[in-house]
Design a protein that fits this description.
single chain, mainly alpha
């Protein structure tokens, strides 16, 4: 007996198979296509809302920074006027310059005192140990902060 090839197979086209299997699958495909389309549209809308909110936030951050800068300036002016009314106007005008002058004077005084003490001991800066140099630097720093001799 000869082996019948694939061409010899006759497929039965049955309307019941098409209706019972393919049509329900096609309906499900259409249903999920519709759900995907709705979800995609919603995502696009949310993305646009997010972009608008981010822009509004950026604008509000700018307004906040401007308002804070102005408030700080007015607060500084208020303190200056308050000091002036209490009789401390010279502090307002030259306070920073005088403070820097005091710091420089203190540094000079400390370094002069150190040099004198080393001269009395008969030593130079090059003979100091590393530990003594660190202590001296720390003392100078302390003097600039606390203003003590």
């Amino acid at each position: 007996m000869a082996n019948p090839g694939p061409a010899s197979l006759n497929r039965i086209s049955s309307p019941s198979i098409s209706q019972s299997v393919l049509q329900p699958l096609e309906k499900k495909l259409q249903e999920y296509d519709h759900l995907m389309s709705e979800a995609h549209s919603t995502m696009i809308g949310i993305d646009e809302e997010l972009r608008v909110l981010q822009e509004r936030r950026r604008e509000q951050e700018e307004r906040y920074a401007e308002a804070r800068a102005k408030r700080d300036e007015y607060q500084r002016q208020w303190r200056d006027v308050e000091r002036a009314l209490r009789g401390g106007w010279e502090d307002v005008q030259g306070g920073e310059a005088r403070r820097m002058e005091r710091v420089q004077t203190q540094i000079h005084r400390v370094s002069t005192n150190r040099l004198e003490s080393f001269a009395e001991e008969g030593r130079t800066d090059s003979e100091q140990s590393g530990e003594e140099k660190r202590i001296r630097a720390r003392d100078r720093f302390r003097m600039t902060i606390f203003g003590r001799d």
